[in-house]
Each structure stands twice: as C-alpha cells, then as structure tokens.
Amino acid sequence: MSTTSGEVDVKIPKLRSGSFFPSLLERRRRIDKALYAVVMEAYVHGVSTRSVDDLVGALGVGSGISKSEVSRICAGLDTEIARFRERTLTHTSFPYVFLDATFCKVRVGAHVVSQALVVATGVSIDGSREVLGTAVGDSESFDFWREFLTNLRARGLSGVHLVISDAHSGLKAAVMQQFAGSSWQRCRVHFMRNIRAAVTSKHVPPVMAAVKTIFAHTDPVEVAAQWDQVTDTFSGSFPKVAALMEAAKHDVLAFTAFPKAHWQKIWSNNPRSVNRPSHDTIMSAA
C-alpha cells in the first residue's frame, strides 16, 4: 500500500470464514486517504496529471500514480460535489440569502476561458450559515441567474425574507422574479464602489466619509433622514453622486426594516463583513 511515508506491505491472513481485513483500509485501493486528499487538492487547482505524479513521488511514493488512477480519484470527488449541489434544502428555512459572483479561469475542452462562478449562501432560522448552491456559467445573464435560483427553489429553499446581492441587472431581475414577496438589499460595499467611481481620486476621502455617516445611525428614521441630507449636500458639488444616491435609497436601506442586531450582517453580501446572526434575532426577523 502507498502512503505519504512510502510503500507499506500489508499481509492479511485468509480464513475459512470471516476476515482479518483491517477496517482502516478499503479493498482494491493502493493509496491511503492522505494521498487521496493531495491528489484531489492538486486537481482542484488545475495541476496536470504529470505534475501530480511528480508530487506523489516527492511524498515518498516511488511507484508514482497513473493518469487513470488520478481520473478515478477525481471522479469520486465529482460525485461528492454533485451530491452536495443537488441535496434538498427542506431541512429548515432561510430568512436571509446572499448571492454573489466572481469570475475565474475554467478549462473548457482545449481552452481556458473566463466564466462566472456564482454562490448562494443562506442564514437559516437557527442562525447558522450554509452554502446553498453554486454554479458556473458564461456570464451573469438574467437567464443564467433565473435558472440558478429556480434550481434552489426546486430543491426546497423557502422562508426567504431578504435577498442580498449587487445591482447587476440580470441578477436583480431574476431575484425579483423568483423571490416575489421578498425584500431585496443592494450590497452596501458594491454601492460604495459605485460612489467612489463617480468622483475624482482627490474627492474620494471626503465623499466616502460623508456617506459613511449615514450608517452610523441606529434608528431607521434617522438613517433615512441622514441619507437625504447627504444627498442634498452632494447635489451641487457632486451631482453624479447625488443622482446615484437618490435612485438607490430604498434598495441600499432595505436592511433598516429588519432587526437592528442584523444590520451590519445583512447590508452587504461581502462574507468578510457578515457575521453569524443569533438564533433569537433570526426568530424575531421571521
């Protein structure tokens, strides 16, 4: 048997009945779980089969590993991923759903192309966070997002009160269609980036500082009032910023309709700015 410490000979006695076959081993497998993990990790990062063979050899396995065995191991990984992506979501309800996308390099046939990787993360009724689904597509089109969200609902996603995402037109339209009756929160982080892009670099610090004063308030009425005041202040010197704020007010401030303890957790779909809500406050939101 091949292990990260080298080749190990395992002799198993034969019996007329029963077996001494060790429970820590699996039949017809010549490498251990540690090497499985190394091969899978290399595969996920796009390492070639030849390089995987060199890596296994560097770990002390002199016999190396064949291309067919790499394929077999990774086929098992694909099965696990498919099972995760297709699992039902009926075990609980998810009041908050975060949607985000990033572009990454993907091998399609003989070519490496840029595709959108989308992720849906839910906060359940008991306050725990769970990745609900992922998908890869050519672009963030309406049809692509609609298909993704339809799949989530078909798998049992329910109890959604608020969807948090950026303002991509295809995504926003799909959310409005598939989650009718739920509120939509425009990601504060993405909106701030839009504000930053609307002014010259020397004006970024004062403009951003003024906008941040809005989110320092803890009363919904005061938040809305401060938004209006900042918008009026910008109307003369920064008309583009004022126009952005006027159009986005209700979407960016959707979080104020939910428990105050959740505000900092739901006003952005940026995972780094979102902490786990407590069970009690989730229950009050639902």
Molecular structure report:
- The chain is built from eleven helices and seven strands.
- The chain has 286 residues and is an alpha/beta fold.
- The chain folds into two domains: 85 residues, no CATH class; 190 residues, no CATH class.
- A five-stranded mixed beta sheet has the order 5-4-3-6-7, sandwiched between helices.
- Strand 1 and strand 2 form a beta hairpin.
Roughly what percent helix?
Answer: 40-55%
Q: Using only CA atoms, what is the Rg?
A: 26 Å
Number of helices: 11
- Our count of domains comes out at 2
What is the average per-residue confidence, as pLDDT, rounded to a whole number?
Answer: 83
- How does the major sheet shape up? 5 strands, mixed
Q: What is the percentage of strand-forming residues?
A: 15-25%
Structural class: alpha/beta
**Secondary-structure element order, as H and E?**
EEHHHEEEHEHEHHHHHH
Distance between the termini: 54 Å
Total count of strands:
7
Low-pLDDT residue spans: none
Shape: elongated
Strand order of the largest sheet: 5-4-3-6-7
Give structural attributes:
286 residues; alpha/beta; 2 domains; 5-stranded mixed β-sheet; two-stranded antiparallel ribbon
Topology:
Elements: E1 2-3, E2 6-7, H1 33-44, H2 49-58, H3 67-86, E3 96-108, E4 111-123, E5 129-137, H4 142-154, E6 162-165, H5 169-178, E7 183-186, H6 188-197, H7 204-212, H8 220-237, H9 239-252, H10 263-266, H11 279-285
Parallel strand pairs: 3-6, 6-7
Antiparallel strand pairs: 1-2, 3-4, 4-5
Helix pairs in contact: 1-3, 4-5, 6-9, 8-9
